[in-house]
Amino acid sequence: MRIETPSMSAVDALADLWVDLAEGQRAYGSHLATAPNRGRIRESISRHVVTGRIRVAREADRTIGFVMFTVESGTLERTELRGLIENLYVVPARRDEGIGTKLLAEAETALREEGATVVVLDVLADNEAAREFYRARGYDPHRVTVEKSIESDTPSKG
Predict the structure, then answer these.
(1) Which of 6, 134, 7, 37 lies closest to 15, judged by CA?
(2) What are phi and psi of 108, to 5 degrees?
(3) C-beta neighbour count of 44 within 10 angstroms
């Protein structure tokens, strides 16, 4: 298994893997549409390839995982330069082999080289395996997002 920066010829296969990732996240409460976003994520993956902010895990001629990352930019000044892990995925049959750990380490190294002083990422609250994966690698909760459906909301009597 090797970790490398992919070429543009890998974009379609990576978009297919992203659809698999997004579809799997639905089991944990994700509201992200999968196939309808394939074109947009393909464009995003293309930008990441061009900027060198994506790594893939490959074995023989098959991609078995990927990580996308960037340095946060915005209009507000911050006390830390944040590196963002946007997507990290390993095909289910190859999980628990250290592939995700290697991909994450590659992204962290690249972000450090770009000047990031902290790395952030989102994990769905119900995805305990992912939360434990990141916790074991030194990631601590920083922000909490809460959600409520307003469609079935009924006023409380009080």
Answers:
(1) 37
(2) -60, -40
(3) 20
121 within 8 A of 158, measured Cβ to Cβ = no
pTM of the predicted model as reported, rounded to 2 decimal places: 0.88
Region of 61 please: left (phi>0), alpha (psi -120 to 50) or beta.
alpha
User: For residue 40, what are the contacts with CB-CB under 8 A and spacing of at least 6?
Assistant: none
Tens-place pLDDT, residues 52-100? 999 999 999 899 999 999 999 887 888 999 999 999 999 999 999 999 9
Separation of first and last alpha carbons in the chain: 61
Element (H, E) at 130: helix 128-136
CA 72 to each of CA 10, 22, 68, 126: distance values in angstroms, whole numbers, following the listed order: 25, 22, 13, 26
Residue 141's CB is within 10 A of a number of other CB atoms, namely 10
Edge-first strand order for the sheet with 82-90 is 2-4, 54-59, 62-71, 82-90, 118-120
Matching residue, tokens 């590659």: 106
CA distance 58 to 103: 11
Closest residue by Cα to residue 123 from 106, 149, 144, 103 = 144
